[in-house]
Fold these 4 entries.
Entry 1:
Amino acid sequence: MFNLTYEFKLKPTKQQSQIFDEWLEVTRRVYNYALAERKDWYKSRSCQLNSCSLRSCYIISADATRPTYGSQCKSLTAAKKKNPNLKKVQSQVLQQTLKRVETAFTLLWERNTGFPRFKKKGRMRSFVFPQMKGNRLQPGMVKLPVIGWVRFRQSRNIPEDGVIKQARIVKRVSGWYVMLTIQWNADIPSPMPHGEPLGIDLGLTSFVATSNGLLVKRPKFFGDAERKLRWLQKRVSRKPFGSKNRQKAQNKVAKLHEYIANCRKDWHRKLSHQLCDNAGMIFVEDLNLVGLSRGMLGKHCLDAGFGQFLGILEQTCVHRGVYFQKVDARKTSQICPNCLTETGKKTLAERTHVCGNCGYTTDRDVAAAQVVTIRGLAAVGHTVKMLAEGKFIGIPLKQESSFL
């Protein structure tokens, strides 16, 4: 079995849009209540033994068990009898909201993502229907539980032999969207290593440098729009809190952010298809993306979107039948791809690789991409006789890409 998610823009009526907004507000309050219940329990267990807080103290019985997803679902069922607003929202949608709280605490313990925060008004932007049984899809229409049939812009065809497993409703500044997860009872074989290998090195000077000498400059999506964004944010700061004009100014800021994200994703998709045109195997570096985002050049790394590009490239490789694999990223710029000797560290200003052992000279990023190719071929069991045959020798020092 395999799943695919299709994203379409909804065209709801005015009444349906009001229902979506009401459901988002109810799910936000349920999320905050469940988070506050867990937070109070943890705070009550972290007080000091030899002193007491002068401000406030969380007093919860020592016999009270830790709030979990199951216990909070039972509390939610009891709360529905007292609060009529909870009855308006489908029960599974509220259960999925409680599961989001559980997932946030799981990530806190496993990945150290930080303590979950409360969501202010307008921060809850999606809710999920985990089950979509029966005939829920027609051309240009989807039937949501409780809400009914909602029109959407069908920009692509959906195969009829799939089964809709869940639907996520997302609110953006440009409108409402639905993400349909469809499942097929078939297994797609993973692409096997074949064809020409292609190593890829990611960077900020050249976004992509390939082992065959292709260099693609990094477009600065956020940097080019930063001046306009600063101007729009200044307009927001000058509007009174809670006013309609402040809300309009915030929408303009959100539209610009969405435009930047859409431009970046579209460019990543086009570049990924270009790289798959003449390659049977693609090898990339297994980068520490979290460390890059927190470094001195974190702002530029986030603007480049390395993680998003690698995810899109992997999806494109599966779709195009190209083998994709990540390799170790350590010391790729310190090893000569021609003789495999370590040349030492290079400063960021050194853009040319010159080997003191064999004299091999090429662009620094291209040399790193060639090392990535060698490691990828070794990982899939291929020999590296191409080094002796001189396949990497003779690549032009710099070849600018025609990709725009």
Note: The domain at 197-400 is CATH 3.30.420 (Nucleotidyltransferase; domain 5).
Entry 2:
Amino acid sequence: MSVENINKIDFMGIPENEPDVVSLAISDHLAWGSTTNEHLYKLQEKINSYIRFIEGGEIKSNFPGVHKDAKKRIEIYFKNNPPDEVMFFFDEVEKVLAEVGVSLRLKLND
């Protein structure tokens, strides 16, 4: 799975050290550069798909081990770190997700 498979959940699980959290992960292997706007659009569509999955109750039917009060988090794993000039996008995403009770974590390459 990847960021390009908009209607698929890439990975989902409960972190060992956070049993009250359900993590839904996005695998982003795309390069940045001349296609930055297209890249951001794909991420936005993928995130919207994850929100629908959570809000529509599919998270519970597809993962029965999820406690109804579990915290939800979307994690984006980047192969190529986003450039500084697009980080505003993730700030805005974080605000939108907070409104629906979901947190965001970016996993950048060091």
Note: DSSP finds three helices and four strands in the chain.
Entry 3:
Amino acid sequence: MALTKTKDGKTYELLRFPMKTMNITQGNNGQYSHQGVNALDIAGKDTGIEPTFAPCSMRYKWHDSAANGNAIFFESTAPVMFADGTIDYATFMFIHDNYIGDILALANKGHVFAQWEEFGDEGTAGRATG
């Protein structure tokens, strides 16, 4: 984990974008399911299934059913710096991965996903519209 220090001694991790391509298919307050929420739908560079990478060092917290899109929640293991300059722990939700059994198997063993470690894939589980 690559930590950076502030002038007052706080340590934090810089976030990385969780995919190699940034193709936003629905943004904040999007037309379909994002009304009133701060969420992005991101697709890969083409119609294939692209991998998802850990934006920071993170550990599994909770997941939902396939019918609800296999939503899986993680929390950073160290504070991260947000776009507004605040430093705090981050919670992430990744959704629509068609199969999360491999993630859950690692999580059940206490695995901590390292920054930029491949951990899942984009997919169409739940109410994906793309």
Note: The first strand starts at residue 3 and ends at 5.
Entry 4:
Amino acid sequence: MEQSCNYKQLQKGANEATETFNRGISEFIVMTADAEPLEIILHLPLLCEDKDMPYMFVCSKQALGWACWVSRPVIASCSVTIKEGSQLKQQIQSVQQSIERLLV
């Protein structure tokens, strides 16, 4: 998460995550378990499962905020995006495989 933020491959917030997903440039989605109201992110797991997109939950908004290098909590979710020629491609693929193993 931190490195993807440095390489400008991180979109924060439920609207941005949904937008990157709909555009097809999202690698995986990270959501918070304590999102309030929960309706903000309820559509994301359904979309991800329909399109076989890896997704995961973290325990808190504060933890996701720290991982995204933001001083305040990230509201609900974030998306790591595709960037041609990125140096993070192998790390992103490793995270995707780890998420897929957890979902099985």
Note: Residues 89-103 form the longest helix (15 residues).
